[in-house]
Amino acid sequence: MTSAFVEIKNAAKSFGKLQVLKDINLTVDRGQIVAIIGPSGSGKSTLLRAINELDPLTSGEVWLEGVQINRKLPHRQYEKHVNQVRQDIGMVFQHFNLFPHLTVRGNITLAPRMLKGLSEAEANKLAEEQLTKVGLLEKIDEYPSRLSGGQKQRVAIARALAMKPKVMLFDEATSALDPELVEEVNMVMKQLAEEHMTMIIVTHEMDFAASVCDRVLFMDQGVVVEEGPPSVIFKTPKEERTRNFLRKHLARNGG
Amino acid sequence: MGLDFSVVPSYFGVLLQGMGWTIAITIGAGLLSFFGGIIFAVAALYGHWVIRLPMRGFAWLFMGTPLLLQLFLIYFGLIQIGIDLPAFVAGVIGLGLHFAVYNSELIQASILAVDKGQYEGARTLGLSRGQTLRRIIIPQAVRAVIPPMGNNMIALLKDSALVSVIGVMELTLAAQQAISRTYRPFEFYLAAAFCYYIINLALEAGLRRLERRIAASR
Ligand SMILES: Nc1ncnc2c1ncn2[C@@H]1O[C@H](COP(=O)(O)OP(=O)(O)OP(=O)(O)O)[C@@H](O)[C@H]1O
Ligand SMILES: [Mg+2]
Predict the structure, then answer these.
(1) Average pLDDT of the segment spanning B137-149
(2) I need a surface site. Which of A24, A117, A139, A217 has the fewest CB within 10 A?
(3) Number of domains in chain B
(4) Amino acid A3: pLDDT
(5) Are the C-beta atoms of residues A191 and A130 closer than 8 Å to each other?
């Protein structure tokens, strides 16, 4: 099925006088995997955070499977609406944002139990399933402080997946990790890709983007400069700005 | 007249009873100061101004005036408007609210210091503001201030002696009673001091255990 699943229309966003997003349009089909690349400060995180209303757009629309995410509603209704739609949008942060006062199990079961009314037994089963998937079942009763960075991020992914989201957003999921821990997280993301999870991935890892993504967006100064399949964007980009960015990036990261 | 501790054992029962009351006041007021502290902190940070403004006045009253006066106010003052509290209850409320205000200051600062990512992590899963506060922010904020709140609890234990002025037969007043019969102030005040020391030790041991238990979850 190739219908617009996530759709962003004429998105604009300002923080005070600083315009961070300028008329961005993006359509992601079900099961598609889109990478967003671009220099620091280009608005990648802001765009991602607009999708689940963490940073609401100044103007424009965000749709998920025919439901407008950023509906203008009276305060109370808006809160209810947002809390509902966010359940369908998994998000993974650079710094994991695991809850340190809860065990791995507690981190994963909290939202399903509170928001979906799962019983303790059901939630436990769910936690075990998701942890098996990310290869961390044996850590189920540990506190996050006892995990490595890579393990924390895998738990964060399992926590997001436990809500059975329709789409997963990744904001530099591996940027805060020691180099030797990056691969274990990438593996989990690749596995999700094989299961046709719809994903939007902000990343600085071009090799990873090239190997798992269907499409790559290059952003600079709040606009999408160029987009296309990874083979085109990484090998034969049309825009000068894209070429410059990739060249600098290669130089900085030693090829 | 030299020291003669031989009179102390015959008042053992009196002292022990006083100790019991002191422990009861400390636990009651301690719980009130803990939960009250959380409620005051949330009200001060997130409450409507209709709640926040009187809270300010309330905080000023409890931080800016002597505890002794507060106890008088609650025990003797409230009778005038028809609220006749038993001395023990008045003492627990007075001490509890007094320290709740101090705990609230600690918790407020601690809530504001919780990483913004915690809030975002919870909201992203679909938790509401209230759910996030209750299940994510407050538990972390409270854990972070267990040590200074523990110090407040120890101060509370010591200040519980003030409740004797409204006639609660706690440890200090029990010692005084024994003294008025035996004229042995030194012996009985020392004995009472020893009892306070024991309670203090137990309290500190409990706090240390609590800190160790939550160490991994911070
Ligand atoms: N909450 C905010 N308030 C004010 N300005 C902000 C806020 N969040 C982001 N910005 C600004 O918006 C611009 C885009 O930020 P954004 O985080 O989206 O960039 P990015 O592409 O994700 O960068 P990076 O690669 O460094 O993560 C930056 O100039 C940033 O300073
Ligand atoms: Mg960013």
Answers:
(1) 96
(2) A117
(3) 1
(4) 65
(5) no
Ligand 1 interacting residues, C-beta cut-off 6 A: A 15, 18, 20, 38, 40-46
* pLDDT score for B216: 84
List pLDDT tens digits, range A165-210: 999 999 999 999 999 999 999 999 999 999 999 999 999 999 999 9
Q: What is the ipTM of this complex?
A: 0.93
Q: Which residues pair with residue A68 across a beta bridge?
A: A63
A45 Cα–ligand 2 center, Å: 4
Report d(CA B185, CA A128) in Å as an integer.
66
Alpha-carbon distance of B182 to A126, in angstroms, equals: 70
Domain carrying residue B22: 7-216
Let me know the angle formed at the C-alpha of A45 by A41 and A49, rounded to the nearest 5 degrees.
Answer: 145
Is B2 inside any structural domain?
Answer: no
Q: What residues form DSSP beta bridges with A26?
A: A8
Residues of chain A with pLDDT under 50: 1-2
Q: Say whether A145 and B118 touch across the interface (CB within 8 A).
A: no
Both tokens of B82, joined, read: 């028809």
- Chain B residues whose C-beta is within 8 A of a chain A C-beta are 115, 117-118, 120-129, 131, 135-136, 139-140, 143, 214, 216-218
For residue A92, the tally of other CB atoms under 10 A from its CB is: 27
Q: What is the CATH number of the domain that holds B141?
A: 1.10.3720.10
- In a domain? residue B109: yes
Q: What is the CA radius of gyration of chain A?
A: 18
CB within 8 Å: B139 and A160 = no
* Ligand with minimal distance to A49 CA: 1
Q: For residue B36, tell me if it sits in a domain.
A: yes
Structure tokens at B213: 């238990």
Residue B32 lies in a domain: yes
Which residues face A12 on adjacent strands?
A: A59
pLDDT in tens, B74-128: 999 999 999 999 999 999 999 999 999 999 999 999 999 999 999 999 999 999 9
Tell me, what's the pLDDT at A250?
Answer: 84
Query: CA–CA separation, B103 vs B106, rounded Å?
Result: 5
